[in-house]
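Margin note from the TA: students keep mixing up input and output lines. Inputs are the sequences; the output is the structure of the whole complex. Example:
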Amino acid sequence: MIDSQLLALLLTPLLGGVLLALLGSRAWAAELNSLMSFFTFLAAVVLTMRVIDAGPQIAFHEQFFIDPFNVFLVALTAFVAFTTSLFSRPYMRIEQHHGKLSTAMLHLYYSMYQLFTFTMLVALTTNNMGIIWVAMEAATLTTVLLVSLYRTPASLEAAWKYFILCGVGIALALFGTILLYFAAQHVLGEGGTALLWTHLNQVKGQLEPTVLKLAFVFLLVGYGTKIGLVPLHSWLPDAHAEGPTPVSAVLSGLLLNVALTAVMRSKVLVDGSLGTHFAGNLMMGFGLLSVAVASLSLSRQKDIKRMFAYSSIEHMGLITFAFGMGGPVATFAAMLHMTMHSLTKSAIFFAVGHAVQKSGTQVMENIRGMIQISPTVGWGLMLGTLAILGMPPFGVFASEFLIITTAMHTYPWATPILLISLGIAFAAIFGKIQPVVFGETTAKSLPHSPALIPVFIHLLLVLMLGLYMPPYLANWYHQAAALLG
Amino acid sequence: MPLTLQIVNLLAALLLLIVFAMLAQRRILSLINLFALQGAVLALSTFVVAYYTGQHHLYYSAGLTLLLKVMLLPWLLHRLIRQLDVKWDVETLLNIPVSMLVGIALVIFSFNLAAPISQMAHGLTRGLIGIALASVLLSLLMMLTRRKAVSQVVAFLSLENSLFFAAASATQGMPLVVEFGIALDVLVATFIFGIFFFQIRETFDSLDISHMEKLKDD
C-alpha cells in the first residue's frame, strides 16, 4: 500500500519529465506541465494523510523512509511546485512573446522542471544517505541549464558559477558521506544497510565520535553551499537573478529546504554519537553569520530579484540558526518558518516576475508605480513584502517571534544580532519596494494576462497560519520536531 | 605487509603524484591524458582492493571506473577540445612553485586531519584516507587556480576521482546503488559541461572564464 502510494508520488514527475521531453514543444505543453504537477500534488496529499494516520513508514526494502518531518516537506514541495507551474504558464508565454525564449528553450524548461521536482522528492523521501547525495547532485544538474535558459552572458556566468560552486560543495558532502559510511561499517558491518538512515539512527550512540565530527563538518559545508549559507553563498544571488523567475521561485522556495533537510538528517546522527552540542553550535554560527551578512547586503542591491535572493539567504540563515538551537520549540519554529518562507518567497517571486515583465527591467529604480498599472501585481508585491519582513498578522511573524523568544531564553547573546539584522532587512527591503509599488509609472500592459491566483493563495495561507493554526497541523509539526530532538 | 597492500599503497602514492602533476600541467591535452592515467590507477587500485578483500561488487566498480573514467570521459574531452579547437592551448599559470608549496602544506594538513581516523581503520586503509583527503584538497586548489573552463572541469573530475578513491580504499566501496547513481551524475555532469563549453564559446568567443566575472553586487 505505502509502496504504491510512494511510487505514484515519485513516478508522476518522472513520467512528466519523459512526456514533456517528447511533447514539450507542443502548444499545450504548459498545461501538461501543470497537470503533471497537479497529479504529483495529489499523490503527495494521499501520502501525507497516510503518514498522519499511521505514523512513520518504510517502503521498498527500507530504501525509502517517510516520517512526519519529511512528509511535511513533501507536501510543501509538491504544493509549491504545482502553484509555480500554474504561474509559469502565462509567465513563460509572455517571455516567449517578448522574444526572450524560443519554443526549444521552453521544451527544455518543461521537461527539466518535472525532473527537478522528481529529484527533490527522491532526496526528501530516500532512507539512504548516499542516495540523498545523488539526488541533490541531480537537482543541481536539472536546474543548471534552466539558470542559463536565456543564454545571455550574465545568465551563462551565473549558471557556470552555480555549477562549479555547487559541484565542489556537493563533492565535499560526498566525502562527508563516505566518512559516515566508514564509521557505520564498524558498527553495522559491510553491505547496503550501513547507509540507511533508520539503521544509523538506531545505532547512532555507537558511531565513532571523531569520525562523525569530521563527517558533519564536510556534510554541513557541502550541503550548506546549496542552502546558501555565508560564506558559501556567492552562487545564489546570481542564479536567482539571472534565471527565469519560476526557476528562482522553486530554487528559493524548495531546493534550499531540501538541502537543509539533508543537513538535519546528519545532525540527528551526529548529536546521538557525540552527545554534545557540536553540530548545533556549528549550525548556529553559520546561521547567524548568514543572517547578518545577508541583511547588510540587502541595502546595496539594485536588482529586485537579487535583493530577494539575499533575503532568502537571510531566512535560510535564520532557519539554520533555529535548527542549531535545537529543542522542541526551536525545531517547531524552524519548520514553521521553512513553510512560511517557501510560501511567501515564491509568492513574491511570482509578483516580481510580472512586475519585471511589465517594466522590462529588473533594476528597481526603473520599476515604479506597480499599483497604477496592475493593482493585483502591486498589492501582491506589497503584501508579500510585508509578510516576508515579518509583519503581523502574517505567519512569518509567528515563526520569527518563536525563534527570537527561544533564543532569548537559551542563547541571549544571539538575540541582539538577530533583532538588529531583521531591523536592517526591514528598512532596506521596505525602503526599496515602497516606491516600486506606489511611485509614478511609465510601464506598458502585457500581451497575456498574468497569473496572480497563486500569489494570493500563498499569501492567504501564510495569513491564515499566522492567525490560526489548525490543531492537527500543530500536532504534526510537534511530531516532526520530536523526531529531530 | 602482504604484497597486495604494498601495491595499493604504491598506487595511492602514484595517485597523489598525478594530482601534483596535474596541478603543474600547462597544456590542456596533457592534462586530459593525466586525467585518463589517474582513472587507470584508480581502476587498478580498486581491482587490487577487490582481490584483497574478496568484495565482489568492487570488481563492478573497478570495471565501471575503467569504462567511464579511462575510456568514455577522456574520449569525450578529447572530442570536445578538438571540436572547440583548443587542443594545443597553453594556460599561463600563476607561479607553479608557490602552488606546489601550498599543495605540500595541504598534504601535511590532510594527513594530520586524517590521523585519528586512520588509527581506527583496518590494516589496508591506514594512511589511505589521508592520501584521499589530500587529493581532494589538491583538486580543489586546482579548480581555484585555473582560468580555463576545460581545465576547471578536469579538476572537477579529478576531485570526483579522489572521492572515489576514498570510498574504494577506506570503506571497500559504497553500496552499488549509490555508486551507480554517482557514476550517472558524473556522466550527465560531463555532458552538461560540454553543452556549456559551446554556449560559453558562442557568447564570449573564448573559453577563458576570466571573462565571466561581471556579476557583482552593486
